[in-house]
Amino acid sequence: MNRTDIRIHIVDDDEAFRDSLLWLLESHEYRVLCHDSAEGFLASFQPGQGSGCLILDIRMPGMSGLQLYEELQARGNAWPVIFITGHGDVPMAVQAVKRGAHDFLEKPFNQEALLAAVEGALAAAASARQNESGVQQCEARLATLTSREREVLERVIEGKMNKIIADDLGISIKTVEAHRGKMMDKMGARSIADLVQTVVAYRQQKGRPG
């Protein structure tokens, strides 16, 4: 993705600090939007549009960065968050990371550290989108299977041979082979290992046992 398609939101009440981050990130061809308060950010943020990451000062007047993060979590925000923190707020930032924030930077930090954190956050967001796309694709393919093809799939991913599947379902081996071939085609699986990996990953993402 072109960097100009990525939006980085900076939420910090310190104008000079915002300006320094804005200059640094724009000089690396990122599109940056600055907000002087958590409340102002919430009024304009639309997480469903585009992709990017959020850089939040953990301590601000009014709604703090941590409170903003909690509100974004409640709204189902999937954009990665990087906290900016002073020395005294490091324990708070560590707790935020444990609850899903991507990273935190302790002031003062150098430009390379910020750019590395942003790159890491964007990579994590891209990976999450890819995983979600894979889940949706697998779900769509599973929906195309007939009930018999689903029965065959369940037994195939358990490692059962065609003869055992035929005995389980009370059908001929040739019928199992026909259902198995159609099921593999519909699932877009190149091999049994590919099928197993796809279905297990899908179920893990959906919170179901493999």
TrEMBL record:
Q: Which Pfam families match?
A: GerE, Response_reg
Give UniProt keywords alphabetically. DNA-binding, Phosphoprotein, Transcription, Transcription regulation
Origin organism is Vogesella amnigena
Per the database record, which ranges form the Response regulatory domain? Answer: 7-122
Please state what the protein is called: Response regulator transcription factor
What positions are modified (4-aspartylphosphate)?
Answer: D57
- Positions of the HTH luxR-type domain: 138-203
Instruction: Quote the PANTHER family the UniProt record gives.
Output: DNA-BINDING TRANSCRIPTIONAL ACTIVATOR DEVR_DOSR
